[in-house]
Specification:
about 290 residues; alpha+beta; D-amino Acid Aminotransferase, Chain A, domain 1; 8-stranded mixed β-sheet; globular; binds pyridoxal-5'-phosphate; BCAT-like_N; BCAT-like_C
Length: about 290
């Protein structure tokens, strides 16, 4: 059965202890007055499960915990969530690439418990973008690079369920002939994609922008930088401008689902990609389980 999603529902006790129960993924489980549905008030993680092994699970759960803290949600019982991800992945029919989606919402309006679940399902086929590369637009995110300290209520840096603007920016890109987006701050810093982290290579120096800019601390970028360091290259978490991306030797968008996608044009201007390095990086992301 190639398409047999697995669902585990969370039950969170007042002291935060969480137990998970397997449930029918085809049945309805979330109430219409759940604040995750009506307000996007909640958090999530998407974890790649490659050859049955969840990737960077500790890093994902640390980020899930930080997101929960930023939204004043109950702090997740990470041991229980880790077990649920591992058990749900093991319960899924084997597949080269799956995704595990972890969701935690503020729960039903007026209630006192969060709603949570782990859903494991086949990953979409990203083969063409991994191989042929992607066309990317540089778009304004319209907040300054110090948004985290200046306006913490904007929740930048939390992986919230409020992704309407992320998907809107992707629709905008597609309606303008591109595949994806790199956001820049109002003062010119490269931020991230709507569902990816930016990685640029300048000779033997690999650079990704810092989470202090109000962007997610990407797990895939962490794995890619560890791989680059292992090749003897220099790695940096540092600020970049869109002009830096234009002159970089190669640029990628990285994320748990697509893993690495080479950027082959920026704002319609073709830029070089490096097929050999992409193959090496993708091979690492698909075969080194951490
Ligand atoms: N930035 C945003 C806004 C994302 O939504 C994602 C992933 O979905 C990423 C970055 C990449 O993070 P990761 O590599 O941990 O999947």
């Amino acid at each position: 059965m190639p398409d047999s999603p697995v669902l585990f529902l969370a039950d969170t006790a007042p002291d935060g202890a969480t137990t998970f129960t397997r449930a029918d993924p085809g049945a309805a489980h979330v109430r219409v007055d759940d604040l995750g549905v009506t307000r996007g008030d909640g958090i999530f993680e998407s974890v790649a499960v490659v050859a049955g092994t969840p990737q960077s699970l500790r890093h994902h759960l640390d980020r899930f915990t930080r997101s929960a803290a930023l939204l004043d949600l109950p702090i997740p019982d990470t041991a229980a969530w880790a077990r649920a991800v591992t058990d749900a992945a093991a319960a899924h029919p084997p597949a080269p690439e799956l995704l595990a989606k972890l969701v935690l919402t503020r729960g039903v309006e007026g209630g006192d418990a969060p709603t949570g679940w782990v859903h494991v399902f086949p990953a979409p086929d990203h083969g063409p973008q991994r191989t042929a590369g992607i066309d990317v637009l540089v778009l304004e995110r319209a907040y300054p690079s110090d948004v985290v300290t200046r306006a913490p209520w904007l929740l930048q840096g939390a992986k919230t369920l409020s992704y309407a603007l992320n998907t809107a920016s992707l629709r905008y890109a597609r309606s303008h002939g591109a595949h994806d987006v790199v956001f820049v701050s109002s003062d010119g810093d490269v931020l991230e994609g709507p569902n990816s982290t930016v990685l640029a290579r300048f000779a033997d120096r690999w650079v990704t922008p810092p989470p202090e800019l109000g962007i997610l601390d990407g797990t895939t970028a962490g794995r890619a930088l560890a791989w680059a360091a292992g090749r003897g290259d220099r790695t940096e978490v540092a600020r970049l401008s869109a002009d830096d991306l234009r002159v970089a030797d190669a640029v990628w968008l990285l994320s748990s689902g697509r893993l690495s996608a080479p950027v082959r044009s920026l704002d319609g201007v073709p830029r070089p990609t490096d097929a050999a390095l992409q193959a090496e990086l993708l091979h690492h992301l698909l075969t080194v389980h951490d």
